[in-house]
Design a protein that fits this description.
The protein is mainly alpha-helical and 49 residues long. It is built from two helices and no strands.
């Protein structure tokens, strides 16, 4: 989860870079971008780097 609001290109670049480094699919979303009905579930699984 990102607490800053990057532009779309930067968000995609960071997501792809992290996926390559970690060898797993990474989903990035800004805090404001979390859907209210999914917020509790997502915040339980957040990994801060």
């Amino acid at each position: 989860m990102l607490k800053v609001t990057p532009n779309l290109i930067t968000l995609i670049e960071v997501e792809n870079h992290l996926s390559e480094l970690l060898g797993v699919k990474v989903d990035l979303v800004t805090y404001k971008g979390i859907k209210p009905q999914l917020k509790e579930f997502i915040l339980r699984e957040v990994v801060y780097l």
